[in-house]
Amino acid sequence: MSTTVASGEAEIKKYQTYSLNVDPNQDDKATEIKLCNFKRPHMRAFHCSWMGFFTAFFIWFAIAPLLPVIRKPIEEGGIDLTKQQIWTSNICSVLGTIFMRFINGPMCDKFGARILMGVLLCGASIPCALTGLVNNATSLAILRFFIGLGGSTFVCCQFWTSRMFTKEVAGTANALVGGWGNLGGGVTQLVMGTFLFPAFQSGMSVEMAWRTVCIVPAVVGFFLGILIIFISDDAPKGNYKEMKKNGTMPEISAAASFRSGSMNINTWLLFIQYGCCFGVELTMNNAAAMYFVQRFDQSVAGAAAIASIFGWMNLFARGIGGYVSDKVNAKMGMRGRLIWQGGLLVIEGVLIFIFANSNSLAGAIVLMVIFSTVVQAAEGSTYGIVPYVNPPVTGSIAGVVGAGGNVGAVCFGLGFRQMDTLKAFYLMGGCVLASGILTAFVSIKGHRGLLWGQDSEEVIAAYKKTGAPAAATTLQVPEPDAEVEEEVEGDKA
């Protein structure tokens, strides 16, 4: 079933003209990206999505570069933590996000990304501001669990751009906002560990400095969350509430959306693969500073600056992953995206083994730059595939796949907690290599896979941009299926 506006009738929507070229047959989604444009609705949502996720990421890992100080004995200004206790807190920081990412997907399908992004930012800012109340390993783990809920803004970020841009450019759009958002992980290492903490320490004790410095990102995050709600839109044609009221968007059941997305095997294959790229990035965000302190005897500030390099690669690397995915799609369709995806994961796995065996500081830094670039390109490539799996329930699929990144981080974190560091790297590298092989089993309806399947005529026409488009005078808003409609009616009853 679809909601239609017949030819000749005035369509009710918030904006009658746009600053970007749009496809009226894809719900007025933009067919291009203009990075220096901030106008509503498309590019305003684009910039709000990456800024919101960037700030959430900054808050999420604000404590990480401070851990070498927090772990010190009480008489030296710390709370006396063991390696296992630190890794327990690292695991807790990503554990809470798993649950929230599963929830956020269908919630985005039902309510849109704008309000969820704002609420989550404000919510995560509160425990971040309370960092100074930590006094033992248990309170640190609990605090980081609640701060980590803000990491689920990634789902809002990816859903929002998928809602604003056509599938043909969604790989690039998703990769750019995700990459620039993930950049918060590198910036927080540099800003918190190298600038803010030393600045606070210059005017107070070491203990007072780490207990108060996290108030800064908390305040920024809270006010940005409020701002995003009021200056942006859910979709090209307006906000979900008004669109449903006007009849230009069908009601969607969050439960049915999640069920439809989670019953697709491709969702879970991408879940595993995303765990082996974004999960690796989260693990490195938690481990890198401590690794360079212990292995190469760097200071806290020096190690934080080096560790920030991993996150800084998000400035371009994830965008490249999505951009190349879109380009090979234009030449080869989905098969091109899958070849790119599988190749990146295999290369990433090999680089983990090489990085783990580096014996010089300079060599480790160079390898980390290359390693990080490939990791983040694989993340961008993954979300170039997501919008194709089952378009009407993209939010739920994005949520499940996004949760895979956190599951991967928890699993790899447990490895670093229980095993020797070198063996933990070997375990992580082996898992990534295996995930690359899984690309052969991704098979999306209507698209050619690596080993079987054929592109439909409609798919070929779409990615090659041939054939006559559907009449632009008819608006079609897809609903998932008849089962979803029954679920909606049940909710109303």
How would you characterize this protein structure?
It is a single chain. Helix 1 packs antiparallel against helix 6, helix 16 packs antiparallel against helix 17 (361-389) and helix 17 packs antiparallel against helix 18 (394-418). The chain has helices at residues 42-60, 67-70, 83-111, 113-129, 137-148, 153-164, 167-201, 206-212, 215-231, 240-246, 254-262, 265-275, 278-296, 300-312, 317-332, 334-356, 361-389, 394-418, 421-437, 457-464, 482-492; strands spanning 2-5, 22-23, 29-30, 475-478. The protein is globular, with a radius of gyration of 22 Å. The longest helix is centred in the middle third of the chain and has 35 residues, at 167-201. It contains 21 helices and 4 strands. 69% of the residues lie in helices and 2% in strands. It is mostly helical.
How is the main sheet built? 2 strands, antiparallel
Report the sheet-strand fraction. under 5%
Give me the strand/helix succession.
EEEHHHHHHHHHHHHHHHHHHHHEH
Helix content: 55-70%
Output mean pLDDT: 87
Q: How many β-strand stretches?
A: 4
Q: What order do the strands of the largest sheet run in, or round the barrel if closed?
A: 1-4
Overall, the morphology is globular
Spans where pLDDT lies below 50 across 5 or more residues? 1-8, 468-485, 487-493
Report Rg.
22 Å
Structural class, from helix and strand content?
mainly alpha
Terminal CA distance: 20 Å
Determine the number of helices (DSSP H or I, runs of at least 4 residues): 21
